[in-house]
Design brief:
The chain has 167 residues and is mainly α. It has seven helices and two strands, in the order ααββααααα. Strand 1 and strand 2 form a beta hairpin. The longest helix has 33 residues. It is globular, with a radius of gyration of 22 Å. The N and C termini lie far apart (71 Å). The relative contact order is 0.15.
Length: 167
Amino acid sequence: MKHLVTATVTFMALAAPAFAAGDADEGKSVFGKCKSCHTIAAPDGEVFVKGGRTGPNLYGIVGQTAGTGDFRYSKALVSAGENGLVWDEELIAAFVTDPRGFLKEQGGDNKTKMTFKLRKGGEDVAAYLATFGAVAATEEGDAMETTEATEGEASNDATTEGEAASE
């Protein structure tokens, strides 16, 4: 029986997703720790979170190639981007937990300007950041396109039914 329970628990752990999605609302609260160095401002000038300028503006960070943008990033982060690192929620969560360790795992040196380690809530901050920028706009656009396509199909169905009735 003991082996069955152990096997079941092991199977459940392996079957669970490798990355638990974060809570954007909780991330907004946790981001308070980040805003001493970071701001979130759209290219059109709309400021969502007024913060410091020590770190880069994090608007649109999800989907952005690491080490690119209007900021002087460390050589290690630029190198990671040149090697194909594109920020997603999982990578951001890992980075904010241990920036130096993360960069070392990426195969470069571990020199980064970000020395702060977020002990808890990395997934939540990543989910919060995903609500700003190109990825968020693309998801909204996809939802609008799906709605428009569905409405268009319904309109075409009505026209077809009307044409069939008149024949």
